[in-house]
Amino acid sequence: AQRVTQPEKLLSVFKGAPVELKCNYSYSGSPELFWYVQYSRQRLQLLLRHISRESIKGFTADLNKGETSFHLKKPFAQEEDSAMYYCALIGGYQKVTFGIGTKLQVIP
Amino acid sequence: EAGVAQSPRYKIIEKRQSVAFWCNPISGHATLYWYQQILGQGPKLLIQFQNNGVVDDSQLPKDRFSAERLKGVDSTLKIQPAKLEDSAVYLCASSLDPANTEAFFGQGTRLTVV
């Protein structure tokens, strides 16, 4: 069975501090991993995916197969980063599994 | 381009009543998903369509939930009869195809069962 674990329900950081949102997964094959974000009163939207290896809004995420992790990082948090962040995995038969989400609160 | 449209935005019903949600995906998107998001949890996939065929409905409570996607475009999700634990936000999403592409989400329908 595939699983996504986001161990922190809430992460509070000060503006300008580094951010790391943790995501660990369980899947026997080669997963496709994503980070989705939901800003207040907005719909869920894709932030980034591991295959594109891109940086979006200053965020990056590296797939570490040895540690089965896909942590989301940003060197300097901004107030507008405050949102819910969900890690998601596409595994066997294109099945999609989301984590429970981490609320990021950036303190001014 | 227009986004994924869902209706209604909110619905309050009594337990044992029936309810239906509607979703119109982005034009040209072959894959359509219905998710259930209970407060404090991540979205849980209920059913995934590829065109008008079901790809995955392993987490759909089939004794009370049903979904269809006639003509491979818009879709309806029905609950009959509803239970208190069905209170959640029901999200519809679509993507060009299921393989590693971006899913676009609708605003969701917030269902409250009393």
Provide tags for this entry.
heterodimer; A: 108 residues; mainly beta; Immunoglobulin-like; six-stranded mixed beta sheet; three-stranded antiparallel beta sheet; 11 strands; 0% helix; globular; B: 114 residues; seven-stranded mixed beta sheet; four-stranded antiparallel beta sheet; 48% strand
Explain this structure.
- The complex is a heterodimer of chains A (108) and B (114).
- Chain A has 108 residues and is mainly β.
- Chain A contains no helices and eleven strands.
- Chain B has a single domain, classed as Immunoglobulin-like (Sandwich), CATH 2.60.40.10.
- Chain B contains no helices and eleven strands.
- Chain B has strands spanning 5-7, 10-13, 19-24, 31-37, 44-50, 53-56, 65-68, 75-79, 88-95, 104-105, 109-113.
- In chain B, the strands form two sheets. In chain B, strands 2, 4, 5, 6, 9, 10 and 11 form a seven-stranded mixed β-sheet that branches. Chain B has a four-stranded antiparallel β-sheet with strand order 1-3-8-7, with no helix packed on it.
- Chain B is globular.
- The model of chain B has no long low-confidence stretch (mean pLDDT 93).
- The A-B interface holds A 4, 6, 9, 32, 43-46, 49, 51, 86, 90, 93-101 and B 3, 33, 35, 40-45, 48, 55-56, 58, 91, 93, 98-100, 102-108.
| Helical content class of chain A | under 10%
Oligomerization category of the chains in this entry: heterodimer
Envelope shape of chain B: globular
Report the end-to-end length of chain A measured between terminal Cα atoms: 41 Å
Proportion in β-strands of chain B: over 45%
Brief summary of the model shown:
Helix content of chain A is 0%, strand content 44%. By secondary structure, chain A is mainly β.
List the helices and strands and how they pair.
The complex is a heterodimer of chains A (108) and B (114).
Chain A: E1 3-5, E2 10-14, E3 19-21, E4 24-26, E5 32-38, E6 45-49, E7 60-61, E8 72-74, E9 83-90, E10 96-98, E11 102-107
Parallel strand pairs in A: 2-11
Antiparallel strand pairs in A: 1-4, 3-8, 5-6, 5-9, 7-8, 9-10, 9-11
Chain B: E1 5-7, E2 10-13, E3 19-24, E4 31-37, E5 44-50, E6 53-56, E7 65-68, E8 75-79, E9 88-95, E10 104-105, E11 109-113
Parallel strand pairs in B: 2-11
Antiparallel strand pairs in B: 1-3, 3-8, 4-5, 4-9, 5-6, 7-8, 9-10, 9-11
